[in-house]
């Protein structure tokens, strides 16, 4: 292998490793933790991470190729808007998670104090139907539960229009990855241009960078999913608290990003925005 080929191979490997490290950015971890908090299987969590990584790679490749090949220049306000969208997305993820957990928590008192439940051997505790966590008086004998498992809200959603599409479960992490890719693609492309001028090699770097983020995020989701999958079965109350905490963290982190990018000095909505791609 010639020295030039070795240098290119080393550079591409660096792109893969940096992509894996890029997956550990705080906003990425917060977003994927909020999503994976609803997942009850390790394999499903890994696929969620892969869906996020694929979405991220799509926009990094698209925007990065426009900058590298066509010399597209991104105006500061547009670049900051893409980063601002990440904050908005994190807030929405947090709100959706907290709203869902609020509905699950409100079920805890819906049937509290129902007459005769103890005489019938019926008890009341937090329990799960797949991904749906709720609470009501029930027993474990035939016909003692109070409703069939297919009558839960998530089961009804699975039978709706969305349930006809095999991959609808992966749509949310894919879209989140798309938004994150928009926010970081300009910085990645500009960094490549400062090192290598050959478009083909630069695009190869982008592709390896994207593959690295897919692998990195799959590993991260495997680690993050462990406490959620364990507590969902063994400690449902603690699982509920974990999911609420993930929603609160996502909301707070997104709010901080929104303020810092949009309203702080040099922010998007100021008279003189200052954009430093990162």
Automatic annotation (TrEMBL):
PANTHER family, alphabetized: CHLOROPLAST PROTEIN FOR GROWTH AND FERTILITY 2 (PTHR33876:SF4), UNNAMED PRODUCT (PTHR33876)
Q: State the protein's name.
A: High-affinity nickel-transport family protein
In which domain of life is the source organism classified? Answer: Bacteria
Q: Does the keyword Transmembrane apply?
A: yes
**Which UniProt keywords are listed?**
Membrane, Transmembrane, Transmembrane helix
> Which sequence ranges are marked TM in the entry?
50-72, 84-102, 174-196, 203-224, 244-264
What organism is listed for this UniProt entry? Answer: Bradyrhizobium valentinum
């Amino acid at each position: 292998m010639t020295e030039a080929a070795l240098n290119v191979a080393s550079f591409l490997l660096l792109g893969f490793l940096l992509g894996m490290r890029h997956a550990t950015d705080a906003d990425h971890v917060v977003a994927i933790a909020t999503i994976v908090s609803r997942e009850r299987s390790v394999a499903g969590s890994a696929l969620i991470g892969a869906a996020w990584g694929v979405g991220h790679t799509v926009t990094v490749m698209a925007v990065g190729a426009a900058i590298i090949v066509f010399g597209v220049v991104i105006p500061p306000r547009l670049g900051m808007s893409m980063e601002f969208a990440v904050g908005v997305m994190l807030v929405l993820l947090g709100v959706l998670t907290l709203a869902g957990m609020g509905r699950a928590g409100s079920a805890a008192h819906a049937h509290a104090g129902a007459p005769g439940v103890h005489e019938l051997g019926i008890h009341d505790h937090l329990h799960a139907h797949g991904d749906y966590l709720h609470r009501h008086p029930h027993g474990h004998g035939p016909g003692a539960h109070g409703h069939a498992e297919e009558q839960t809200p998530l089961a009804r959603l699975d039978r709706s229009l969305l349930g006809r599409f095999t991959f609808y479960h992966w749509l949310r992490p894919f879209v989140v990855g798309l938004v994150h890719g928009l926010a970081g693609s300009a910085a990645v492309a500009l960094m490549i241009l400062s090192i290598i001028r050959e478009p083909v090699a630069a695009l190869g770097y982008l592709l390896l960078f994207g593959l690295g983020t897919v692998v990195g995020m799959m590993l991260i989701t495997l680690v993050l999913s462990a406490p959620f999958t364990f507590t969902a079965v063994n400690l449902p109350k603690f699982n509920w608290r974990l999911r609420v905490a993930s929603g609160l963290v996502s909301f707070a982190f997104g709010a901080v990003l929104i303020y810092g990018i949009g309203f702080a000095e040099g922010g998007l909505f100021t008279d003189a925005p200052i954009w430093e791609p990162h």
